[in-house]
Predict the structure.
Amino acid sequence: MDIHEYQAKQLLKSNGINVPAGKIAYTALEAQNVAREISPRGPWVLKAQIHSGARNSGRFVERRAGKGGGIRIVKTLKKVYDNAAQMLGSTLITAQNKPDGNLVSRIYVEAYTKVEQIFYLSMAIDRTYPAITVLAANTETDDIAAILANSPEKIIRVPLDLKGPTKAHCKRIAEFLNLKAKSFESFYHFVRGLFKTFVKSEALMVEINPVGIRRNGDIVALDAKITIDNRAVYRHKDISSFRDEDDIPPRELKAARNGFSYHEYGNGNIGCIVNGSGLALAMVGMLKGSAACTLNIKGGVDRDKIAAGIKIIATNPRVEGIVINILGGFVRCDLISDGIIDTAAEVGMNMPLVVRFEGTNRDEACKILEQANLPLIMADSMDDAIAKILKAVEESE
């Protein structure tokens, strides 16, 4: 689960990391009042809060939003109001978000912070070690995307153990970044705070881009991006409230509300319903570009949820056929059969459907579908299911 910058900064601040003064605003007037409150004389930074990087170089679809990007520095309270009015309710397209952009419904108003040096710093799980790993790079002349693509040797990677970053780790990184001696203690506490945030929130990634160094040597997080492990969110009531449902595609949101995970791929026309992430990846690979989406129903489901899952797949306009591939363990195959029948009774079966069961209550499930006399195709294996759905969709065109 991605969270917004202002939410990420709340977590960072609670763990001892310096962040500029700032507050969220939902209207232009609120933005102006917030600006006056946090820094009477300015300048201020207005930041569109969407789940995407590259906001500064992004562009708005609507002409009324002006020529500025998703991050704007303004020097007067009138400019705060005018720019907030332009940005709010407009659609921002960046190099990293969806093609049609994201609607800006809130703006983070932040006091402008003057710094002498900037750099990139993040923590992520490197599964090759495996370990939480610090990544850092000097971004004074190139952004991190360009460095990653063209000069990966300019990024230092330092794996940590369960005790977190030591002074030796931090010294190695600080020397790589050419930090001045007066910044070392602040940098050490910054990296320790980053690690604390990562572990406490059960994150998959914490990224500060950029980190700034003030004239006195203090380190400050000028931006922040945190991705939380979806499987851990239920353990953090404070973090679960950060979920921005307005920024989640409707089918993905419906799937999440039922405890499923939903993903879309390329330009394929086959929808896949499976029970397991590995099975989903295997199906996508075997369909060789023909997969439109996958729905992973996992465990703990009932017939109503199964029916809801099938309808989620069926509402994807690119889907021309559905293949259900269930290896019954925690998920009983007969529950899937009941859900198929419920869906057929409610919305009908207007596209080819191939079903393959294996595992718990397989025979009972097959018998249920046979007696229901539905226009579907049974398969004996995953290879058989793939071949049959591709053939059925081709013949239905």
